[in-house]
């Protein structure tokens, strides 16, 4: 996918369709949309993704406060991963991995790390503010998304600060990635292993 980001949209589309063949179980994409331009762009992207695989379904039945946004989940499963923004640019790989991992594709993570994540007690709600041009952000987003897939008590939302400037100003976010856990703030640029 990364090699396509500076190439044609057809290249990205073909790569994504190939990756989606690795889905082992159904995946639902449920969007919270408005009538603005970004919502229309998000709908177009998500409908196209759903058309690429019979294991992916799309619905706009969500009513999250953040519009546009969408969540990725298993049928009958809890909400796990949400993208409050259109994950293109550096974050497109984050979207692909979220779909694959939710759809049962094996994770390239050490078994002991996976087990540690599954055994975490308590409920954790993470929000990560990113910019689509940030090169460090995807590692953090992908690590927290992976945790959300492995543990139903972990929830993660990626937020594109450019789409939600009021939140950026209210929370006085000065750098990306900025990760919130509930009401606690932690600003850093960890590697994937450190984030896990």
What does this molecule look like?
With 196 residues, the chain is α/β, with parallel strands linked by helices. Helix content is 36%, strand content 21%. The chain has seven helices and eight strands, in the order αβαβββααβαβαββα. Strands 2-1-3-4-6-5-7-8 form an eight-stranded mixed sheet, covered by helices on one side. Helix 3 packs parallel to helix 5 (137-150).
Order of strands, main sheet, comes to: 2-1-3-4-6-5-7-8
Structural class: alpha/beta
Strand content: 15-25%
What kind of sheet is the major sheet? 8 strands, mixed
Instruction: Give the number of helices.
Output: 7
**What integer is the average pLDDT?**
89
**Helix/strand order:** HEHEEEHHEHEHEEH
From the spread of the alpha carbons, the general shape counts as globular
For the record, give the distance between the C-alpha atoms at the N and C termini, rounded to a whole number: 23 Å
Q: Which consecutive residue ranges, at least 5 long each, have pLDDT under 50?
A: 191-196
Radius of gyration: 16 Å
Helix proportion range: 25-40%
Strand count: 8
């Amino acid at each position: 996918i990364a090699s396509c980001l500076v190439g044609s949209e057809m290249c990205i589309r073909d790569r994504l369709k190939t990756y989606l063949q690795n889905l082992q179980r159904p995946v639902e994409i449920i969007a919270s949309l408005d009538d603005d331009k970004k919502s229309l762009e998000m709908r177009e992207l998500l409908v196209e993704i759903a058309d690429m695989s019979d294991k992916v379904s799309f619905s706009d039945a969500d009513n999250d406060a953040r519009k546009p946004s969408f969540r990725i989940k298993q049928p009958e499963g809890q909400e796990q991963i949400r993208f409050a923004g259109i994950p293109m640019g550096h974050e497109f790989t984050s979207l692909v991995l979220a779909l694959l991992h939710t759809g049962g594709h094996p994770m390239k993570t050490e078994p002991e790390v996976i087990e540690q994540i599954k055994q975490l007690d308590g409920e954790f709600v993470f929000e990560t503010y990113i910019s689509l041009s940030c090169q460090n952000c995807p590692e953090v987003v992908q690590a927290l998304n992976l945790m959300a897939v492995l543990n139903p008590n972990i929830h993660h939302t990626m937020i594109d600060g450019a789409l939600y400037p009021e939140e950026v100003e209210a929370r006085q976010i000065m750098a990306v990635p900025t990760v919130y856990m509930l009401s606690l703030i932690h600003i850093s640029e960890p590697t994937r292993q450190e984030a896990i």
